[in-house]
Specification:
The structure is a homodimer. By secondary structure, chain A is α+β, with helices and mostly antiparallel strands. Chain A folds into 2 domains: 3-195 and 367-453, 3-Layer(aba) Sandwich (Aminopeptidase); 197-251 and 297-364, Alpha-Beta Plaits. The first copy, chain A, has 15 helices and 18 strands. Chain A has helices at 3-11, 13-24, 36-52, 121-137, 160-166, 168-171, 214-217, 224-235, 256-264, 269-276, 289-295, 335-349, 374-387, 401-410, 435-453; strands at 56-60, 67-72, 80-86, 106-108, 111-113, 144-150, 175-178, 190-195, 197-206, 212-213, 298-307, 316-317, 320-329, 355-364, 367-368, 392-396, 414-418, 432-434. In chain A, strands 1, 2, 3, 6, 7, 8, 15, 16 and 17 form a 9-stranded mixed sheet that branches. A 4-stranded antiparallel sheet of chain A has the order 11-13-9-14, with helices on one face. The first copy, chain A, has a 3-stranded antiparallel sheet with strand order 4-5-18. Chain A starts with a helix and ends with a helix. Chains A and B meet through strand 9, strand 10, helix 7, helix 8 and helix 11 of A and strand 9, strand 10, helix 7, helix 8 and helix 11 of B.
Chain lengths: 457, 457
């Protein structure tokens, strides 16, 4: 990478931090309509950053919050990268648990504390500043670069897929880049090459047409709460293995190489347990904790609701009982296939006297990026430049649905290059971003444009 | 019964209705502290009724709402009856479903509509007016009569047991009388000789120390909601048979005579199902619907709470999951014996990684009044006088804990003589009391004092 770029980064480190603080001061909480003006202000601020460095930027309206789109495509013959990020943040509640106010960014112990510091304003901003460094020194980018920065990630990205579908030509690219994940541990950068998918459901059972007295009717009327627990129990065995027929048919097993590499990662089970406050772990036999979380499908109940939930006792035979539950899927499992088999499975177990309704919420397939891709090799070199060490290859248990959207609609893979740490308190009070990682991220990103630019398309 | 008594009842029918309306206009809602003054007013009003007819009456303070106590014991050699009732009522919500305001008693189709009309102001009042009829005509009662009218029945009778315990001498009697139940059907009066007991629990499970991301942690961390449904499922089989060891050991089976009498009662299953809006019923094999509800123990989940209960989807692995559930018990099952066996049963099924807490709420044993008792025979005659037909003997699935308190602390059985109907909407909008039944109840009660007075103690 040109020395001038590195020098620019070094000389502007303080300015970059100050600019990030400006963005963090805007409370762009997408879930709360009172922050609509702040959302707009954040979008304008981000667009302004692109314009200031000479990129074309546009604020694209959606039925919800706007998307900021920017591009600079003046590197003929070089590949095109599309950076995705989001400028919206989670609500800061509960406010009283913040040591310093969520929208007054504060430096402490080498970290910057604020809502959005790492998720995703800080991480997204690294790619903005790296482009600026190239443009302000070399005068041009070594790659064709596009940015898609949305404002609804924290509320389900409702309008993103439509935007991508309607703007396929504009968004055409060779590879996508997202920094919205974490390193494996402090100082141990990672390339996340796999994500689990998800299929989320709600099961609603209706028994009698109103709550009944459990003394007068109990024993003769089928209780939907009793039925619910039985139906849910049938879904998974004691080890968490899903019992819906065919569920595991399409699961791509981990390769021996992956299992060896995961096993070589530093992992302290006592520390893991202590961090979440449990004494024992459990899960599928013959799989390690990391394998269970990154590469095995699951079924977790996310919510249960029925009858009386207040203080003390109420002798009610509830009219209704419902559960929210979701399956994490691994690559090659199709979320669209699951619902029919699940519905049959549950219907067979739904007792007479109960009517059931199964609602399917969002689904997303799991993804893996082929490790042999030249873009992955380019990213490895960039991380080595920015962090001074080779990244490990990891997967993640969560889902980032836009990764499959990019795959399906744009036909490209995504590089998940996360600068965060697992204890960054994303979605919790005292969210933070390590400032050293912020600068390492910018440096990696600057190198990434050069390395990706060299890939022959 | 002296003709003068019957005549007094006939001549004062309209006055009795008007007086009941006075009481019904007082919104003595025990659950709401804003009605504290109304509670006091209702107690004073009831005490005034006793004083007006020449009984000694007292308003007894408790740490909660006061108890009205009255007595007239001037029938040496005759037995003593203790009437229990309550002057407090359920909250009237939801108000918009009432056709006429809950505290403006309104006559419609031969019924009196108001909160408390049947539960329990109207039914309780029948025993007040019957005593008045004797005193205003014959000049004395044919029995020694005591009244215990409380103001906390709708909020769990928290201070009643203490009052009874501290006033055993004062409350000493040969038989108790409660009118807070129903006829078997319109024009088919009933003596309720059996009640189910209850043992109510809450099971609280704790997994991780906070809600976790179900993507990041799912599959490796034991989910307390998944554990809860498994533990609850183990409690009962598909027919509702409780699986806790020893649960059925002490159950007194129904006699052949009882089963025959229950089978002879008019019961229309299609009507029963339609009234509660279910298409199918289910329960223990080899028992009829009536037997299941009146005389078989049960386990019903009364409430389920865990994780996300709002709209849409949230991918949370909940920290906590809890259930309220209760067992209906039949005579001879001791609620005090159940908790230890239940706790062992659940602990054996609580997976590693989850801590459980089992909270025991109120318990009450089931009761049966011996049918061969002379007081029952007296009550039969009184009902024949008041309703013009012989009552049927029924049980009820619910629990009236004070019945066991009377049995345990005063050593007496209770006559449950209900003038209500199953569709009286107790605890619901548009509560009503059939005015013809109100007067039949007063007439039965007046005869009851004479019939009970003849029993040799």
């Amino acid at each position: 990478m040109p020395a001038a770029v590195d020098q620019y980064l070094a000389e502007n480190a303080a300015a970059f931090e100050e600019q990030l603080c400006q963005l963090l001061r805007i409370p762009s909480v997408s879930a709360q309509s009172t922050h609509k003006g702040d959302i707009r202000a954040a979008a304008e601020w981000v667009a302004g950053q692109f314009r200031d460095m000479g990129m074309k930027a546009e604020i694209c309206e959606t039925p919800g919050h706007p998307i900021v789109y920017a591009e600079l495509c003046q590197a003929p013959g070089a590949p095109t990268a599309l950076v995705y990020g989001h400028y919206d943040v989670q609500p800061p509640d509960p406010l009283d648990l913040w040591e310093t106010p969520p929208f007054e960014p504060t430096r402490r112990n080498g970290n910057l504390y604020a809502r959005g510091a790492t998720d995703d304003k800080g991480q997204m901003f690294t790619h903005v500043k790296s482009a600026e460094a190239w443009l302000k020194t070399v005068g041009k980018l070594p790659i064709n670069l596009k940015f898609l920065i949305e404002g609804e990630e924290e509320v389900g990205s409702e309008h993103l897929d439509d935007y991508i579908r309607l703007n396929r030509e504009r968004l055409k690219c060779d590879v996508c880049v997202i920094s919205d994940t974490s390193q494996f541990g402090p100082g141990l950068p990672a390339i996340t090459y796999g994500l689990r998918g998800i299929s989320y459901f709600e099961l609603k059972l209706q028994g009698p047409d109103r709550d009944l007295h459990s003394g007068v009717f109990g024993g003769a009327v089928v209780n939907p709460a009793n039925a619910l627990v039985k139906m849910l129990t049938a879904l998974v065995d004691d080890q968490g293995r899903v019992q819906v027929p065919g569920f595991y048919d399409d699961v791509t097993p981990l390769t021996e190489r992956e299992r060896k590499e995961f096993a070589a990662l530093p992992y302290d089970e006592a520390e893991f347990k202590s961090a979440i406050g449990v004494k024992e772990l459990n899960g599928e036999a013959d799989f390690t904790n990391i394998e269970r979380r990154w590469a095995r499908p699951t079924c977790d109940i996310n919510g249960l609701t029925s009858g009386y939930q207040g203080e003390g006792a109420k002798t009610v035979l509830p009219a209704k009982a419902s559960a929210k539950f979701s399956f994490r899927l691994v690559p090659n499992q199709d979320p669209a296939n699951l619902k029919a088999a699940l519905e049959t499975f549950l219907k067979e177990r739904c007792p007479a006297g109960i009517t059931m309704e199964l609602i399917g919420y969002h689904g997303a397939p799991g993804v893996v990026v082929p490790l042999e891709s030249p873009y992955v090799a380019a990213a490895v070199k960039a991380v080595e430049h920015g962090f001074g060490r080779r990244p490990v290859f990891i997967r993640e248990g969560g889902s980032i649905p836009v990764v499959s959207t990019f795959h399906d609609l744009l036909g490209v893979d995504t590089l998940l290059l996360g600068w965060g740490l697992n204890d960054d308190n994303t979605h919790s009070p005292n969210e933070k971003f390590c400032l050293a990682d912020f600068h390492r991220g910018i440096k990696t990103s600057a190198a990434l444009w050069e390395e990706l630019g060299r890939v022959k398309t």
